[in-house]
Structures are given as structure tokens and as C-alpha cells.
Amino acid sequence: MPAPPSTPVKSPMQKALDKLGLRRDIDLALHLPLRYEDETRITRLVDAREGEHIQIEATVVDSEVTLRPRRQLLVRVDDGSEVCTLRFFSFYPALQKALAIGARIRARGEVKGGFQGWTMMHPVTRPATGELPTALTPVYPTVAALPQAYLRKVVASGLSRADLSDTIPAHMMARSGPQIAWHLRQALQFLHHPAPDVALATLDDHSHPAWQRLKLEELLAQQLSQLQSKRERALLRAPVLQPATPHAGLPRVGAPPPAALSEPVEAACPGHDKPALPLHEQLLAALPFTLTAAQRRVVAEIAHDIAQPVPMYRLLQGDVGAGKTVVAALAAAICIEAGAQCALMAPTEILAQQHFGKLVAWLEPLGIQTAWLTGSQKTKERRHMLALIESGEAALVVGTHAVIQDKVQFKQLSLAIIDEQHRFGVAQRLALRQKIGYEGLEPHLLMMTATPIPRTLAMSYYADLDVSTIDELPPGRTPIVTKLVNETRRNEVVERIRGQLAQGRQVYWVCPLIEESEALDLTNATETHAQLSAALPGVRVGLLHSRMPQAEKQAVMSLFTQGQMGVLVSTTVIEVGVDVPNASLMVIEHAERFGLSQLHQLRGRVGRGAAASACVLLYSTGDAPRLGETARARLTAMLETNDGFEIARRDLEIRGPGEFLGARQSGAAMLRFADLATDAHLLEWARQAAPRLLDQHSELAEKHVARWLGGTAEYLKA
Ligand code: ADP
Ligand code: MG
Predict the structure, then answer these.
(1) How many CB atoms lie within 10 A of CB 95?
(2) What is the distance of C-alpha 296 from the center of its chain?
(3) How far does the centroid of ligand 2 lie from the alpha carbon of residue 242, in Å?
(4) Ligand 1 within 6 A of CB of 354
(5) How far, in Å, from the CA of 497 to the mean position of ligand 2?
(6) Among 62, 103, 402, 448, which is most buried by a count of CB atoms within 10 Å?
């Protein structure tokens, strides 16, 4: 047996370097300064200006520790032009020794003039030996265990050892590149040790060409890695889900699509004279509305994808109320008429329940059996459902996270649909993909979201994803009027509710989470429920919050859905997807505490029918005289636009991409240097350059990705 490899014991500094992700020479070379200090020149005190940051070189002429007004070390130095007092409130004996009378030193800090002459508080001092440096001194991001001086040394040696040869061929930079003449090596050497005459502002805001080069490199690495994973996915096989043709009924798993794709399709029903329409056409015919052009387009995109022998990986985005559910139902119908199984997973039980209700109403009349899976299900019912799923009798499975549990065995899952995909993590998406019942195949994946992804983000973080967008609302909707109302005018809001109820409409009232209410002193849903019940005698006011037992939640929700409840007071459990077209007023209490996309989602619960709808944002400033800046920015955005895409853009602006996507999805700090808001042109270049580099210089592409993403590249592919 070979001896286990001995792991060298790591020093605390080594561990600290690890923590910063600084393992390879190239990692060190790419660890860029936060800011710089100028130690390249000496300013004579006689030339100094009040408040200026300068370095002086002088001789210590006096040194004393005084105790009044508090203990401090006072060192007087003379640079031959004037005298300056260096003042230290905390100091070690070593400093005192270094600053003994007669010592020749350099001191760097802010000089202040006073009636006692110049002073510097806590300057950085060092012996005045050796030449002055010729470049600015870098200050690196670091952690406590890693002193700046040590980090400077290891970074410098990493920089000198690392292979910094260009991976972007010169002609690609020159032809369509953003005209950045700097090579990687030059750029890095400069950014670690810039010449003192550089315009510091261009380093601060990363607009300097050296920074541009690095951002471009980083974006290219990201694009390359996404493109690679997209191409790897293209090598996987998926069941071919053709719209029904005669002899449908068995999945034509892995079979190439038949040549005559465009022939009219008719499902054969042996024993019947009249050929029945395929399921999806039957569904279309039975709908009480016709699809919008946008819905038709996205259905066609999905139908095209799932008829291919490679797995679909598609995001369906559309504003709240745009009608994504029916698109999912049509995709399910196409899958089922091809003889395969479809699963739909939603993040909350209420939402799953609602989808289930809708899909059953649409699909069961067509003879499709649907199974239902949630965590709160009784064992007996659950067993029954599991059996239906395993035997394939249930062609459609709707549920919550329960759908991806180990026990669930599909016969032939071929299409997996995830609603409100941003509520699920990478691991859950993977788990659903692994549920497929076929050897060696992957299911098609359709992810739906009402939080549209701004273009730059989609290009950057989802470059490996195909995106379908429903960019129009069904006709006949009246825009929602949004009002901002101070909490002190709560009574007027109650008046408004009465008005809506009198017209036979229904009202939502949303409160922030109960869990947080104790800590944050929020009016909780229970209290509001009691208040509104008292204020609206004879009106059924319901309460819905996350701590209620599931059965109770469902009972309340169905009363509201059926129009038997006038007002629904709720925590954000109703946030996603609930669809009650008769509801015309949405009141959001403590709106200042909600995130922007959450507010927009909540508002989207109304305005679903033809009635004029309104959203009232009740806000409170608490003890403060005014709202905080970001809260104000969010509420203003809500007042100014109803457009989910614009909301998403503003949300991105307010929160930044990491938070916008949630750390879980963005892979934390995927972009260290580039900024999607300001570097869109670099991103565009990288997007176009990535396939060319991969096709024409695959070795350079490999090297580029390894250099930039190292060990993290695998994670990004999940
Ligand atoms: P979301 O995209 O937010 O999931 P839904 O799928 O819940 O939206 O649809 C919102 C409402 O619009 C539902 O009541 C749905 O039946 C209805 N709807 C969907 N498509 C159309 C259409 N083309 N014409 C009219 N109403 C539609
Ligand atoms: Mg929905």
C-alpha cells in the first residue's frame, strides 16, 4: 500500500492566503490593489499645504511622552525647512526607539497647521534609508493574519513568476476589440506598481486602459466557460418530443426527428373514424381566450427545442400576469402527446396547488391524469401518487420540492418545468434533471420567472441559457395605479377598501413576515386582521400566514379564490403566482421593508382582470424624519413604472448583480473587476469573441479559462 501523501502543515499566513483564494502565482498576480500610497516623493514642510497627504524626510530633534491631556508620544522633527510634531496616542517601545533623537526618518501622513506649527497624527514612519521607490506603493485587500508588507512581497514574487503571456490573439484585440493597446503583462505590472504621474482617478474608477484590459479578460473568461458548458450540454441526449403524429403513444426516445416536420399532424385514435386533434390543439381550442402573439412565439420556441434530441435549457421570462402558466400547460401537452411524462415544480404549496387546479381543469378533460405531490400530504395519498408516477399512469406531476425527493420515481420524465425558478437553487435544478427515468438521457428543462433578467445580466450570467420572453400582456388589462400613502393615513385606505368591496371586488392586504415582527416591531398580520375585521363589519376578512397549518391555508385561499372572502390579510406567502382576477386592490403595509422585485410581484396580484386596479404602498418612516435612500429609490421606481423589465433594471441598479441574483445563483463574486452597468461594451465584445477564440484557438481558450477561473470553473457549470 502506498503511504498516504504527507500534507505539509500550513502556516497561519499560508492559511490566510488560501482564504483569499491566493494559491497559484497567477492568483497572486491577479490580486489587485485597492488603492495606492505615494512614497515616491518628499515634500518640504515649507512647501506643504494644510490638510495635504505628504511624505517628509527629517531628523528627530525631540521626543517625549506626555500624560496630559492623555498619554501620547510627541516627536519633533526638522526637515531643514520647518519643524513638525508627530503625535501618537498608541505606540510600542519599538516605535519610540526608532524615533529616538538624532534618527533620520521618513514620515507619511496628513499635515495640519496650528499655532504650534505643523503636526501629523499617527503618520507612517520608516528609517530614511535607501532610494525612494519609483512607483506608487500598492495597498492590497487583505485579512488580519496577513500584514500588508508580507502580502506585497508574495504578490510581487507571484507576479514575477506567473505566466502572463497573452491568451487573446493580437488580431482579435485589434479587429473588433475596444482598442485596448495594453497587453496583460503590461497591464498587471502597471496596476501593481503604477508610475507616480498616473491620474489616480482612472485607477479608482477602473477606466484606465490597464483596468479595461483586465475587465475584458475577466468577461471573456466568463463567456468562455459558459460557452463551454453550453457545448458540453449539447453533447447530452434528450428524448425527442414531437407534437403528435399518427402512431403516437410511445415516446420516440432518442430517435431523430422525422424528416417531414412541417406536415400537418393528426393523432391517430384507432377505432375512431374522425382523427382527434393532438392534445395541445385540443387544449388551445378549449381555452376561454386566444393566445397573445408573444405566447404563441414562446410556445413555438419551446416546441422546437423539445423536438430536438438534445436537452432544452430554456428560461421563460414574462412580467407578472403575462400568462406563463398556459405556456407551461401547452408544453406539457406536447410532451404528453409524445407519450412522455412532464413534471412541474413550484416553490410554495399554495402556488403548486393553484397550478394543479388550473392544469387539472385544462388537461383532465383531455384524458390526462395528473398526480399531486407535496410535503404535507397524507402517507396514503402520497403512496398512491408515487405509484401513479412510477407506473406512468400520471402523465403530469405537479408539486413542490416534494417532486425531487428520493422516493419519487418517474417512468419516463422528459420535460421538467420549474416555476419561479429564482426560488430554487442550482442543486434543486440538478436533482430534477436527474429524475429522468431513461438511461443516458436528460430531460428538457423549462424554467419560468416573473423577475426578468436585464439584458447585460442575461448575457453575462446566463450566457449558457436560451431565453424566451413574453413581452406583452393579454389584452384588456387596465394598468394598475400605484399610490404611496403614509401609515398615518391608514383610515383613508380602509375607506378605499370599502369602495372596492361595494363594487363586488376583492382586496389583498400584505404585511411583512410574522417571524421578523418581534424583532423589527412591525404591525403583524394578526393585528391587522383584527383591526380590519372590526373596521369592516359584515365583511369576511381572512388571514393567511406561513405558520398556519397547510389545510387551513388552503381553506382560506380557496374561499378567496371563489370570491367568498372580501379581504385577504396575508404575509408574503401570496407573493408568487397567485391568480385571482376579481381582486382589484393591493395594500402593502410597511412597503419600505420590501425588496423592489417583491413589491412588483405583489402588485402583480391585481390588475389580472378587466377591472381598474390599484396598489397602495403604505409606508412608515419609524422614528426617522424621512425614508432611507434605498427604500425611497425602490418606492419611487414602483410609482414610476409598471413594467417588470424596467423594474428589474432599477433593482439591479439599486442592489448590484450579486444580490439581484442571490449569492446562490451568481456563484458569489463571479465578477471581481468588471461592472455590468458600466462595462456593457466590453461584455458585448467578450460575447462575440468567445466562440471565435474557442473555435479558432482552443488551446488559448483553455489556458484563458484556467488562468482566470482555475478551480472555480467547475462550480460555475452546475
Ligand atoms: P403569470 O405569467 O404571472 O404566471 P398567469 O399564467 O397566472 O400569469 O396568467 C395570468 C392570468 O391571465 C390568468 O388568469 C390567465 O388565465 C390569464 N391569461 C393568460 N393568457 C391569456 C390570454 N392570452 N388572454 C387572456 N387571458 C390570459
Ligand atoms: Mg405564474
Answers:
(1) 14
(2) 29
(3) 26
(4) no
(5) 26
(6) 448
Q: Can you tell me whether residue 106 is helix, strand or coil?
A: strand
The type of residue at 636 is T
- Rounded to whole angstroms, how far apart are CA atoms 141 and 168? 28
- Alpha-carbon distance 8 to 163, whole Å? 26
Structure letter (DSSP) for residue 141: -
Which residues are 237's β-sheet partners? Answer: 441
Instruction: Note the pTM of the prediction, 2 decimals.
Output: 0.71
| Among candidate residues 568, 580, 588, the one with its CA nearest the CA of residue 483 | 588
Band of pLDDT at residue 680, cut at 50, 70 and 90: confident
Q: Is 269 a residue whose pLDDT tops 60?
A: no
- Enclosing H/E stretch for 32: none
Q: Which three cell numbers stand for residue 313?
A: 435549457
Asked if 446 contacts 329 with a C-beta cutoff of 8 angstroms, the reply is: no
% residues pLDDT > 70 (the chain): 87
CB-ligand 1 contact for 292 (6 Å cutoff): yes
Which residue did the predictor score with more confidence, 525 or 284? Answer: 284
For the record, the C-alpha cell of 233 comes out as 450540454
DSSP letter string over 407-452? T---SSEEEEEESSGGGS-HHHHHHHHTT--STTB--EEEEEESSP
The ligand 1 atom at the shortest distance from the C-alpha of residue 324 is: 2
Helix (H, G, I), strand (E, B) or coil at 510: strand
Distances (CA, A) of 361 to 296, 353, 443, 460: 21, 12, 25, 39
Quick one: how far is CA 717 from the chain centroid? 16
Ligand 2 ion local residues (Cβ < 5 A):
577
CA 328 to centroid of ligand 2, rounded, Å = 10
Q: Which residue type does 170 have?
A: A
CA dihedral 44, 50, 53, 59 (to 10 degrees): 40
| Ligand whose nearest atom lies closest to the CA of 577 | 2
Indicate if the pLDDT at residue 129 is higher than 80: yes
**Burial grade of 574 (CB within 10 A; 0-12, 13-18, 19 or more):** buried
Out of 295, 350, 478, 579, give the residue to mutate to test ligand 1, the one with the largest number of ligand atoms within 8 Å of its CB.
579
Ligand 1 pocket, 320 CB below 6 A?
yes
607 CB under 6 A from ligand 1?
A: no
